Amino acid sequence: MKSKIILSLLFFVCLCFVCTNAFCQTPTSETVTITTYYPAPYGEYRELALTPSDDFTPGASCSKEGAMYYDNSEHQMFVCSGKSGSNIWEPVGLSSLHIESGHGVIPNVCTAAISGVSCTVPWSINITFSKPFYNIPHVLVAPQHVTEDLSTGYATDAVYAAASNITKTGFTLSVGGSPVSVFPSSISDNWTKSSASWIAIGY
Fold first, then answer.
1. Which CATH number describes the domain made up of 98-202?
2. pTM flag (> 0.70)
């Protein structure tokens, strides 16, 4: 009987020791890191909305290429693009394509010496766009007609038309017709007034 009591006491002491080590351990700190994205970097969306803003200036510099915003003054979406060599806000889509043109334009400014009705360089005129482009546009020019001024007494062997000093706000149009001369020291190096057409395409 006495041995049974001793065995029972030993079993009880062992049970308490096991329970103490299992449930009464000193707590330790633990760190859990969860990475999530909102919205998700990949996915399909039925509709995305940009809050209209006028905090940015179209055509001005921007810092983060790929950023977008909707301009509530221009009613147009813009993206921060670096295709021009520096990051600027450019419009998005074909609807934002900016096209301007002129026809039958006769430059009347001689920037060199005038000889009778001709100029020693092609005649020029400064063209100003009705609205500035957001970047420097492509400008194409083509001669149309040489002034029929018979006072030169010569035919025309060449017609010149070119665009220079192209900026976001305009360019210089130079046009001229060069008479043919049978005399070495005559007016063959002079230019008569001529008309031309031009078109500017950009954003």
1. 2.60.40.2080
2. no
